[in-house]
Amino acid sequence: MIDLYTAATPNGWKASVTLEELELPYQVKPVNLGAGEQKQPEFLAINPNGRIPALVDHGNGGFAVFESGAIMLYLCEREGSGRLLPQDAKGRSLVMQWLMFQMGGIGPMQGQANVFFRYWGEQLPEVIARYQNETRRLYEVLEQRLSQSEWLAGAYSIADIANYCWVRIRGWSGVSDEGLPALQRWIAAMDARPAVQRGCAVPEPLQLPDAETDAEARREQVVKSARNLLQR
């Protein structure tokens, strides 16, 4: 059995969607980020960096894995069939390139867009624009690739899962997919996958407040919780 320590974030979804796509049995261990559970000694024994997701594979001697990309790779190699990660060098490299594109590009840039667009105590328009524009540029790189290929690495893979789990919250980040038809087609295809739907509801469905329609009090509650996390 695999224990998955996670919360409803893009990096958390990367692990749970991969587990769902590979049909591996796992037990969800929700981590309350707002309460600082990720900084407690028992969690730091699993992930010394104090971040989610992390997993413990009891079928492999209680082996612990942290970092979302490392978890995705471990699960594919553990499952061993070549699903989501080809076994040939060229196919594997292609998946790894687009996985690292997310980890080194979209994740950090869109994460900073979230921080300064939604959570920072003061509005810094030039900073917000810097991260939103760079995230949009990276979306345009995805658009170019997806206009040539149904999936990022040819066949459906963890590269698609990793990038989608961030792109799916583009509205919260203030980044548009307007004028990117191939990206929109890919998003719709990802949205429709049952395993993706299940994985993105772990440990519970996340409904981010809409800036136009949701109550100000609810938006403020989400923002306050996120600001608290920035202090940890």
Written overview of the protein:
- With 232 residues, the protein is of the alpha+beta class.
- Helices cover 55% and strands 8% of the residues.
- It contains 10 helices and 4 strands, in the order βαβαββαααααααα.
- It has helices at residues 10-22, 41-44, 68-79, 89-119, 125-146, 158-167, 170-173, 181-191, 194-199, 216-230, and strands at 2-6, 26-30, 54-57, 63-66.
- A 4-stranded mixed beta sheet has the order 2-1-3-4, with helices on one face.
- α1 links the parallel β1 (2-6) and β2 (26-30).
- α4 runs parallel beside α6 (158-167).
- Residues 227-232 have low confidence and may be disordered.
Number of strands: 4
The biggest sheet amounts to: 4 strands, mixed
Separate helix tally? 10
Helix content range: 55-70%
Q: What does the overall shape look like?
A: globular
**Biggest sheet: strand arrangement:** 2-1-3-4
Instruction: Report the structural category.
Output: alpha+beta
Distance between the termini: 31 Å
Quick structural summary:
This protein has ten helices and four strands; from the N terminus they run βαβαββαααααααα. The chain is an alpha+beta fold and about 230 residues long.
Task: List descriptors.
single chain, 232 residues, alpha+beta, 4-stranded mixed β-sheet, 10 helices, 4 strands, globular, disordered C terminus
Topology, please?
Elements: E1 2-6, H1 10-22, E2 26-30, H2 41-44, E3 54-57, E4 63-66, H3 68-79, H4 89-119, H5 125-146, H6 158-167, H7 170-173, H8 181-191, H9 194-199, H10 216-230
Parallel strand pairs: 1-2
Antiparallel strand pairs: 1-3, 3-4
Helix pairs in contact: 1-3, 1-6, 4-5, 4-6, 5-8
